[in-house]
Amino acid sequence: MSDAPSRRQNLITLLLLSPGLAGFFGLFFYPMLVTLERSLHPEGQTQGWTLENYAVLFRDSDFSRVILLTFFLAISSTLLSIALSVPLALLLRRKPAGHRLLRMTVLVPITVPGLIGAFGLLLFWGSRGWFNLSMMPLLGRTEPIQVNYTLVGLVIFYVWHYFSYTATTTLSTLEGLDPAIEEAATVAGATPSQVLRHVVIPLIMPGILSGSVLSFMAAFGAFSIPLVTGGSLRPLAVSIYKQIEVFTPARWSAASAMAAVMATLQVIFLAIYMRVLRRPTA
Amino acid sequence: MRNLATVYWRALVQRKRLLGTVFLWTFFLWITTPFMIIMLKSVGRNWFGRKWLPPNLTLDWYRWAVTVANIPRILANTLIIAAIAVTISTLIALPTGWALGRRKVRGKELLTSIILLPRMIPPIAYALGVAQIFYRLHLVDKYLGVGLAHVAICAPYATLVLSSTFQALDDRVLEASAVCGANQLRTFFHVTLPMVLPGILSSIIFTFTTSYNELTLTLMTYGPHTITLPVRTYLAVGEGYWEVTSAMSMILVIPSFFVLFMIQREIAPEKLVGGFKGV
Question: Fewest C-beta atoms under 10 Å: which of A43, A189, B24, B65?
Answer without folding.
Answer: A189
